[in-house]
Every structure is written in structure tokens, then in C-alpha cells.
Predict the 3D structure of the following.
Amino acid sequence: MIKKFDPADNSASIASVTEQVQPVKIGAAVSSVHFLGERAAFVGAEEKVFLVNEASEISPVAVHGGGILCAAADGTRLVLGGDDGKLVGLDGNGEVKLVATDPKRRWIDNVALHADGAVAWSAGKTAFIRSGKYEEKSFDAPSTVGGLAFAPKGLRLAIAHYNGVTLWFPNMAAKPEVLEWAGSHLGVTFSPDNKFLVTAMHEPALHGWRLADSRHMRMTGYPGRVRSMSWSAGGKALATSGADTVITWPFASKDGPMGKQPAMLAPLQARVSVVACHPKQDILAAGYSDGTILMVRMADGAEILVRRNESAPVAALAWNGKGTLLAFAAEDGDAGLLEV
């Protein structure tokens, strides 16, 4: 069984917990990891998802006929889009269900899930949404969709694209709202309190808007593109990759990061590749391009080594809903579980 680790322990003996990690040998490239109940779902780059229980028993499940391009999970279901033009759902029992097939067999490269059961996905310029309460609807963006995110309140979908983000209310006749900013927007996220919207851009920067008045928030200074964003417990900070430290932007005040400098945590001589904030406590996990994984207390920056540097970059990190399990994987499929 996995040994337990207590991040609240301040003793010097917790500097490393590498020996408490339960190894998981996926044996295939991994692009992301999610939890379905207490089972970790390691999403392969092609064809399969690998379901892993707490005993590190691996159950491969075929979900696509080719490359897996996107994935989103809500704790009970995992929805994946592929280059076979299909959107597929997977539950914790390993049951696979076809959600949608693109009529033109286009790649499905973005997906998002809503708490009420709705699912959104995109193929090319078109974003689709399906809810148990409403029929499937679609929206054509001005350019290829770069990212999708549901607002935490109400059925509103953010669609990132070139030169901004469109906010679409699929069940309202009103014209969608457009938040403009020059450049290519490749990822998008709402703050948990529904007050801010942030995008990751093709250039090494984030851009944000305060939704009440569409005021801009320029979040720059990165040496590389931001490919991973994670909100802290309560949404008081946004942790990001893209530098050789974890960059965390403050969002506790009504102005968010306007006029404020971000905190820089866990510096290393390697680029941060992925971040995942703990769902209950002000703790985050950070994976680096050299294979290192650190657990970091956001209050004081204290670091705990979870995985020593290896050759492959860390590709995936996730906490279960209770925050008692951390799952990780490198690009080459070398993975592990840590019980916290």
C-alpha cells in the first residue's frame, strides 16, 4: 500500500518523500492524468487510457482509434477528443461511451465539462455544446478555437480564438460578448468566483479581463509559453508554468493582479512544465522539464521533493477530489502515486 505523507509536518525529515511514492509503469507516452473517484486515469498520447487503482494495478482501456488530442474530467467522468473525429466518455468502471462524432471527421481538439452535466467541444472553428436539458447547439468562432471553459455559474461558455475570447450563452438569443486582445489565445479559464477570465497566449504571456467591466490585466514576463494553469483552493491565486519558477498571480482582491507582482515559488534550473494546486489546502505540485516534481506550500514557499530529476519532462499532475492522492506521469510514461 501507499505510505501516507503529511504536508503540514514542518520537520526537516520531510524534505524528500520520494521513497513514499508508489511507482506506476504505464509503458506508453502520457499527455494528462485525471481522477475518476479514487482511480487515476492516465491519458495516453494515442488510443488508450490507463486506469490505475491504489494498489497500482493498471487497466488499459481503448478509447480512440488514433491520437488523443484533449481530455477533461469532473471526478466521475472523463471525456476525450481524438483525431478520429470522435468524442468519447469514460467512467471509473472503465465503460466507454461515444458522446459525439464530428460530421466532417475533423479533429476534436478542445473539450470542457460543466457541473450540471453539459459538455462542450470544438473542431476547427466550430464550438459545440450538449446538455441533458437542451439540444445540441453550435457556434462558429472567427478563427480556429484555441480553448474552451465553462463559467462556474450559469451556462456560459468561453471560446478562445485569435484576437480574443467569445462569451457564448447557448440558451439565450443575445449576441455573444467578445473580449478583445490582439494575438492568439490558446487556453482559457474562469476564476472560481466567476469574476475574472484568463487566457494563455501563443506568445509567452497570459492575458486577463475583469468580467464586471472588461478591464484588461496584462500578465507578462514569462520566458516561455504558459501551457499549464491551476487555481489555488478558494481561487485566491493562479499558479502557472512557463518559467524556471512557479509563477502565481494574486486574485484575492477585487482588482485581481492589476498593479501587483506575482509570487515566484520553487525556483529550479529547469522549466516548469505542469502545475496542479491542491483542492483543499494552499499547496501545489509542480513538475519540471528535467523530470523533477516538487510539492510547495504557497504560504512560505517550503519545498518537498516528490520525484528526482529524470530524463523525460513531467507531462501530467493531478489531485483526487479529497486531496489525499497525487498522481503524476512523465512524457515517457514513468508515473507514480503519492498518498497525502
